[in-house]
Amino acid sequence: MSVRRWGRRAVLSSVGAVGALALGVSAASAHHCYIPMYSLDGPTSSNWLVFSAEAGAADFGIFTAQCDAQVDAGYAALRAEGLPVGIKIFEKMTIGNPKGDETGGSSNPNGANGKGLEYFGAGSTLADEMLMTWVQAASSTSCD
After folding, report:
1. What is the C-alpha separation between 136 and 9, in angstroms, rounded?
2. In sequence order, which residues have a C-beta less than 8 Å from that of residue 64 and are 6 or more positions away?
3. What pLDDT does residue 3 have?
């Protein structure tokens, strides 16, 4: 692997980790759970804060796509890996607690399994994986 490519991967990994952490920490400061979205075409509501992979990467300064080809490559990579294309956070209140948390835990059978509620800081890396997969695919795609 060339030094240039290795350096780019190291920087991308570092920036991506910080950005993914920022997404988790900022959202988790008031709400510690989110729902993975496997389509961005769903219904919208003012009660939900939605982060697409593209918007999350740009909002947190990880990577901003320069062309449609990069955006498309990022989402194609997410779909190929079976990862969500975005997450949504209920803004009105916290809608679930991870098991073992001081408030008693959730009885949701789909908690922290990629199908229902996911928890920031409680072992779920789904949001981080979504961002990093999108960024890696988008940033390695040329806009020529």
Report:
1. 9
2. 57, 58
3. 43
88 compared with 64, residue with greater pLDDT? 64
- Position 28 scores a pLDDT of 41
Q: What are phi and psi of 98, to 5 degrees?
A: -65, 150
- DSSP summary character for residue 130: H
Sign of the torsion formed by the C-alpha atoms of 41, 122, 59 and 29: positive
What SS3 state is found at 87?
A: strand
- Tell me the angle at which helices 126-139 and 68-81 cross, rounded to the nearest 10 degrees: 140
Confidence of residue 7 (pLDDT cuts 50, 70, 90): very low
Q: How far apart are CA 144 and CA 142, in angstroms?
A: 6
Would the CA dihedral through 95, 90, 85, 57 be positive or negative?
Answer: negative
Residue labelled with tokens 């948390």? 101
pLDDT of residue 124: 74
